[in-house]
Amino acid sequence: GSQIAIVIERKQAEEEIKLKNEQLQKSNAEKDKFFSIIAHDLRGPFNGLLGLTRLLTEELPTMTQDQIKKCAVTMRKSATKLYSLLENLLEWSMLQRGLISFKPESFILLNGIAPIIELYRDAADKKMIRLDYEVPEDLRVLADKRMFDSLMRNLVFNAVKFTPKGGKINITAKPRSDFLVEISIKDTGIGMNKHTMDTLFLLDEQDTRKGTEGEPSTGLGLIISRDFIEKHGGKIWVESEEGKGSTFYFTIPYNAEAQGRSDTTDASSQILAEYYLENLTILIAEDEETSELLITSMLKKISHKVIHTRTGAETVEACRNNPDIELVLMDIRMPGMNGYEATRQIRQFNTDVVIIAQTAYGLQGDREKAIKAGCNDYISKPIDKDELFGLIQKYFRK
What is the model's pTM? Predict the structure, then answer.
């Protein structure tokens, strides 16, 4: 009997070692993937950006308005490409380490899809690709908005990337009988063979194909997409034929209870809200000049008085000296005293002021930490104007 027990134990130990080895190999493959992307794909746009900034700083006085504009447009493109790549890398690494929180909410699908399509409209126009969509107007889904945006960005970007000039892309959505909504992204692109289809959602270094105009690929977009869809209990799959195009399908939960309710974000309510908000006294606590500049320009319309502070201590002092401050946009990572501590101190003498935390990382736990410190809400950088206005409306709409 004891002989058998030893054999079983040894078998279990071997299985465990085998499993650990597999996990280690997978982890190493992921690290290799991560670094190869950083080495290749980040370097290109970065070099372009650095070259242009050097050109601007050295040649600005002799450049024409047109040349300056061209430079700025190219820099913006490089920066946008870099940002979406970094966003993908960070999302993917956070997902691997279990740091992304999953917060499904109900929203009208069309409101989630339309902005993403407009985001890639320019790129499609440049390749003379027709980009159409057919989505029922009142169809609601239950999904994590951030994950959904990332997922749609990846799939629409891919469709544009792999469709040659003069092609067509069509996005459709329909409810199925099993409380899922099926969304499809169909293109008339280069398509793929069986091997490519089989390795599409796997971490396979070799299969990062360039787009029809040489657009770069990280090979991460679809892996992130697959992980996001699985979190929703949905599935993703592809049908494709070489030279004929591809159709990507995915499913996400359908929100039956909320069908028929409308979202009140029409233009007139927006104007009304801005009218109500134009007399706010706002404090921007932000140590980074560019961020401060951007936020100030966003708030021009709705604030008649903006106070700026650069450190946590200054922020507490400013709130103490200006009891009329109604809103604080609190950067969490400031030199010296951080935003959490500054909020805790302000709350000792002022419980009414609305404090919105802003952080560049958007890590899980940041929101909870901010609320615990006494913030009313939280927004992640780079700040989106609509999101910021939405938050401000939430607290100050009459």
Answer: 0.50
